[in-house]
Amino acid sequence: CDLFGVYSRKVSPGKELMNKPRKNRSGEAGTDTMKELQAFAARLRKARQQAGLTQQQVAEAVGLANYVSYQYWERAKRWPSLEYLALLCQALGVSADVLLGLTEAK
Predict the structure, then answer these.
(1) Quick one: pLDDT at residue 11?
(2) Cα–Cα distance between 30 and 64 in angstroms, integer?
(3) Staple partner for 97: which of 28, 69, 103, 104, CB 3.0–4.6 Å?
(4) Are 79 and 55 in contact (CB under 8 A)?
(5) pTM of the full predicted structure?
């Protein structure tokens, strides 16, 4: 299944799921995919700031061992898995539609 223009890789249970942007034949992330990832990262950062939370607080709320993985999402380095996307929505009090840019935040 290829959602959000990224590929998923299987990891053993208990390991963190992190999806990297799909790369083109030259090994670089595709322009459209990177633009989408950067837009997602900006919406994620805005939602966190509006919720009045730090990166560390959000990372703890979604069950990450440290906030470095969260920083990857906010810095447009990687996509969160669907599991983490759902947890982010709960922690930040926004819908997935808002984080994915399908609707505007209220």
Answers:
(1) 42
(2) 28
(3) 103
(4) no
(5) 0.71
Length of the chain: 106
* Tokens coding 46: 């805005």
- Backbone phi and psi for residue 16, each to the nearest 5 degrees, phi listed first: -75, 135
Q: Characterise 52 by phi-psi region: left (phi > 0), alpha (psi -120 to 50), beta (else).
A: left
What average pLDDT does range 13-35 have in this prediction?
A: 58
The partner residues of 79 in beta bridges, in order of sequence, read 19
| 81 neighbors 18 (Cβ within 8 angstroms) | yes
How far is Cα 21 from Cα 19, in angstroms, rounded to an integer? 7
Residue 105 vs residues 27, 60, 100: alpha-carbon distances, Å:
34, 23, 11
Sign of the four-CA dihedral 4, 9, 14, 17: negative
The tokens describing 76, both together, are 């447009």
Express each pLDDT in 53-99 by its tens digit: 999 999 999 999 889 999 999 999 999 999 999 999 999 999 999 99
